[in-house]
Amino acid sequence: MARVLDELVREAERRSALLPAFSPRPSEGRRERFLQAFADASRMHVIAEFKAQSPSLGVINENVSPEAQAAHYEAAGAAAISVLTEPSRFGGSFENLERVSKAVRTPTLMKDFVVDERHLAEGARRGASAALLIVRCLSDERLKILADAASDLDLAVLVECHNADEIRRALVIDDALIGVNNRDLDTLIIDKQTSERLLPLVPAHRIAVAESGYEGPLDLASVAPYARAALVGTALMRAADPAALISAIAGLRRSASPVNIQESR
Length: 265
Prior knowledge:
Layout: H1 3-17, H2 30-36, E1 45-50, E2 53-54, E3 58-59, H3 66-75, E4 80-84, H4 94-103, E5 108-111, H5 117-125, E6 130-134, H6 140-152, E7 156-161, H7 164-170, E8 177-181, H8 193-198, E9 208-211, H9 217-220, E10 229-232, H10 234-238, H11 242-250
Parallel strand pairs: 1-4, 1-10, 4-5, 5-6, 6-7, 7-8, 8-9, 9-10
Antiparallel strand pairs: 2-3
Helix pairs in contact: 3-4
């Protein structure tokens, strides 16, 4: 891992150490509602992201409240709302997650560099329905431990990958959404061909998510047969009318999913 990612992981470890001890939560159906939000395989779903800044772009939009932006996302029919909780490089917070979760009925995804069960528990306490797990940051053992902890907390998981080996590792986690991030976390460079190469490796019955760099439906046409959802952040945070952008992407009809590479073997 490059220095930036190393720092983000160390910061996540430090923050987790300050959180209350892990304890399971009774199911409230949040995990199931999150998964059901992507049940329709005939169209593209949008995971609309709220983030104030990023390591590569700096401040993106500091003039909109989490509640107002989330209301735009919900009104346009976003399947879920991703909220950055990483504070040091992304300007995120658990407070933003809680504010969004209380403001809308749309399920929320906690997006962070999760390395500890206590981090997941805090996300659940703040209203998340799902959490991001980044394969590159975790051993196979830790990935499984965190996925099991998420299930105990009634959280779904989006497992993020950037190469074929990481997809193989992610597919071991039953019912996880499988995300392909076009942004290389080592260099922060975006290459949208990453999703084009890797999404066909995800079996068609799994929910695959294309992440990073998408500006609208035209960008997503090449991955639509393989990705059931797109995670869109910067474009929505900068858009004069984020609801219109979500509606345009959500209007993208997916062709019948071809047989994916994994299933043809």
